[in-house]
């Protein structure tokens, strides 16, 4: 299909997800490794929390004792929050101590006075460090959230991960000098220290790319979703510089209204229906949950029900992911420029019930709205579009969320003062134009995208636009890194 003869290439960060087929013993062992990573996470969070508590006490003491204002006390008192480098030394010590003790089979108590588990040695060190890094990340996100330097949902005070509640997962970073994470065959993945695990289908495409040298593995995250184990291989992949096809160039701009009644309304008039995945499973889920509530604690029946509920939830997630991938593939493969609105998704999905003092308005309608929005996950669609447009040589333009795209007539430009959510049709009082509400919004988005001021996303996207190709690889690598795209999961 591609007529690329170009020598120009670019490096992207992406992930290949493989479904694993571990033996029952291996599955047990994978759970143990995930448990070890969780233990390290909890240890790190515990240490951070106690340092933070100490700091709060000192601040309170200083305001009382030294008559400082709270602001003064907060800047004057410094108690460092420990992070991975600090824990690393601790980890080395306990692993060494444990090695000494291993001879006679006894376990030495750790710094916290408790005995450390024998796995501390069996598990790859990198998996343990991965747990601590995750704790650093959680702490950083919380700080950013309270300082309001972070966009999106508010992040709460970092909590401990509970066994059986938190997702089983561990990450091992790759040592590039001695690549321990590798495909021994197209059907077997080798995880350092752990050994080889069978792959459910095959990884022929990935194997070919690794052999050709266009893909370099940087880390592997092994996690369990429902009854399945997956391995996400994060890679650096060299791809030909994306270019725009003639067909897409001719297709031009599309405006996309991510939405309420339908998943997406396009400025072309196409309405992409809501998959209603949640509703599809709701009845079955309700049935299982009733059975679970009636089951006896600790019974085999109960364990089976928990398993079934987990599978159902997992199926739902996979279906939702599949739907989002299909939609975004279709968009980036058809149009040169895609305009979307910068929705405040967290705000839209927050509970509409309000508080006791201030009851929410229109609770019933909004609750329905929230459910359907969660089903469609506009945030996911936007994230997918951000990197897929780059790969496809298209351009993503994000419109300021305060532009009145719903209330503006896409024909004459007159703006309505009010438009209730229940009004599904846009009727212009000025020119008499009548159109589906969401399609009208999509047309306005398309018009704004055509004259959009630069945002960070559009700048990144524009670098990949036709006629503005940069032939070096480094600039793109930097741009992609800044976007945090190395964390994007893309199913193979
Ligand atoms: Zn009008």
Record field, number of beta strands: 14
Distance between the termini: 19 Å
Characterize the largest beta sheet: strand count, sense, and whether it forms a barrel: 5 strands, mixed
Roughly what percent helix? 40-55%
Shape annotation: globular
Associated small molecules: zinc ion
Beta content: 15-25%
Order of strands across the widest beta sheet?
10-9-8-11-12
Which class of secondary structure composition applies to the elements?
alpha+beta
Average pLDDT metric:
78
Calculate Rg over CA atoms: 26 Å
Task: Give the low-pLDDT segments.
Answer: 101-111, 345-373, 454-492
The run of helices and strands is: EHHHHHEEEEHEEHEEEHHEHHHEEEHHH
* Total of DSSP H or I helical runs spanning 4+ residues: 15
Question: How many domains comprise the coordinates?
Answer: 3
What features would you highlight for this structure?
492 residues, alpha+beta, 5-stranded mixed β-sheet, 4-stranded antiparallel β-sheet, 15 helices, 14 strands, binds zinc ion
Secondary structure layout plus pairing:
Layout: E1 9-20, H1 24-65, H2 70-76, H3 84-102, H4 119-122, H5 125-146, E2 169-173, E3 182-185, E4 188-191, E5 195-198, H6 204-212, E6 215-225, E7 228-240, H7 246-251, E8 253-258, E9 264-266, E10 271-272, H8 277-294, H9 300-334, E11 337-341, H10 345-349, H11 363-376, H12 378-392, E12 395-399, E13 425-427, E14 434-436, H13 437-450, H14 456-463, H15 474-482
Parallel strand pairs: 8-11, 11-12
Antiparallel strand pairs: 1-7, 2-6, 3-4, 4-5, 6-7, 8-9, 9-10, 13-14
Helix pairs in contact: 1-2, 1-5, 8-9, 9-12
The protein binds zinc ion.
Zinc ion binds at residues 409, 411-412, 414, 428, 430-431, 433.
């Amino acid at each position: 299909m591609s007529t690329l003869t170009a020598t120009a290439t670019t490096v992207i960060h992406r992930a290949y997800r493989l479904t694993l087929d571990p033996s029952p013993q291996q599955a047990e062992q994978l759970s143990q490794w995930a448990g070890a990573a969780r233990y390290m996470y909890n240890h790190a969070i515990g240490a951070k929390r106690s340092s933070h508590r100490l700091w709060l006490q000192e601040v309170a003491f200083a305001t009382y004792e030294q008559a400082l204002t709270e602001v003064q006390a907060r800047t004057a008192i410094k108690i460092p929050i420990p992070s991975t480098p600090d824990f690393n030394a601790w980890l080395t010590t306990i692993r060494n101590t444990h090695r000494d003790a291993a001879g006679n089979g006894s376990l030495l108590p750790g710094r916290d006075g408790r005995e450390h588990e024998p796995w501390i040695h069996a598990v790859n060190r990198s998996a343990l460090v991965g747990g601590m890094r995750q704790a650093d990340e959680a702490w950083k996100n919380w700080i950013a959230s309270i300082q309001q330097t972070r966009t999106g949902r508010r992040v709460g005070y970092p909590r401990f991960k509970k066994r059986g509640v938190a997702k089983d997962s561990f990450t091992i970073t790759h040592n590039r000098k001695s690549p321990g994470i590798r495909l021994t065959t197209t059907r077997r993945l080798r995880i350092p220290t752990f050994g080889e695990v069978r792959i459910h289908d095959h990884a022929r495409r990935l194997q070919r790319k690794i052999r050709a040298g266009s893909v370099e593995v940087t880390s592997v995250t092994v996690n369990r979703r429902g009854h399945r184990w997956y391995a996400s291989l994060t890679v650096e992949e060299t791809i030909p510089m994306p270019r725009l096809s003639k067909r897409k160039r001719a297709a031009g701009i599309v405006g996309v209204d991510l939405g309420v009644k339908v998943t997406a309304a396009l400025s072309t008039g196409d309405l992409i229906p809501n998959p209603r995945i949640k509703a599809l499973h709701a009845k079955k889920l309700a049935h299982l949950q009733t059975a679970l509530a009636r089951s006896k604690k600790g019974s085999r029946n109960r364990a089976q029900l928990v398993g079934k509920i987990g599978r159902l939830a997992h199926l739902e997630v996979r279906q939702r992911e599949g739907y989002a991938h299909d939609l975004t593939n279709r968009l980036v493969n058809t149009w040169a420029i895609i305009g979307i609105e910068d929705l405040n998704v967290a705000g839209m999905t927050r509970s509409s019930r309000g508080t006791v003092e201030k009851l929410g308005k229109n609770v019933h309608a909004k609750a329905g709205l929230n459910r359907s929005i969660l089903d469609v996950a506009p945030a996911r669609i936007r994230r997918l579009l951000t990197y897929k447009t780059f790969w496809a040589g298209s351009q993503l333009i994000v419109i300021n969320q305060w532009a009145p795209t719903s209330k503006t007539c896409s024909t004459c430009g007159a703006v309505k003062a009010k438009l209730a959510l229940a009004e599904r049709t846009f009727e212009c009082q000025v020119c008499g134009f009548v159109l589906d509400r969401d399609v009208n919004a999509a047309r306005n988005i398309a018009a704004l995208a055509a004259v959009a001021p630069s945002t960070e996303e559009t700048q990144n996207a524009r670098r990949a636009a036709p006629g503005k190709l940069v032939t070096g690889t480094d600039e793109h690598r930097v741009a992609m890194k800044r976007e945090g795209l190395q964390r994007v999961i893309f199913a193979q």
